[in-house]
Design brief:
6-stranded mixed beta sheet; alpha/beta; about 250 residues
Length: about 250
Amino acid sequence: MKNFLKLSIFIISTLFVGLYMSGCGAASTAIEKRNLEVQTKMSDSVFLEPVSPDKQIVYVRVRNTTDKDIEVEEQIKNAFTARGFKVVNNPDEAYFMIQANVLQIGKTDGTDNDSALKSGFGGGLLGAGVSMATGGSGNNIGIGAAIGAVVGLVADTMVKDIYYSMVTDVEIRQRPALDEKISQNEQNYSEQGTTSTISQNVNTNNVQWKVYRTRVMSTANQVNLEFPEAQAELTKGLAKSLSGIL
């Protein structure tokens, strides 16, 4: 009877402590992350030659190879138009060309964004970040851990620190000046299965474009953030970032 009473007191105490600690953690997260925070970063800086107003003509092409139905091309075009650029549908008429591919968009754990950004154009993407917790051993400790886990699960269900990220590879092209002669040497590697690799070495003289490549990472973070709200801010950040290159 005494052992049962002690166990009951222990369970109740653990419950109240777990509830208090989880409640404090959830409340802290709710306060700290109550406002939507959006960040957009480039893996590499791109510096283009300034041109006269009559040459501020840009061709924009954005592809989306993710499983999300997003529309960002028109938003990017509108951002260029707002900055005084003429957006054309024929690349032959353009002095600048922006080509982008949205590679990945979705929920992340907020820890692997930097690695995807630092890997740069064509590099690795976001991994599946998973947070895990382990408990201790022993009868009473196991019971207390189980109770704490349940309380923590309830708090985490009500208050979630949510990150959504979008990874976009970008190629920017600028026509060279009339007196510039550009030669291009490009090496391409393509893996064929697990045992062979195809290597291509392309040399081109007097190319028509100067080529720059970078990666853009947009991240939205807020407590209990829903994807539609994150999507709007992520695409807005990408449009602002790309229009600021020229």
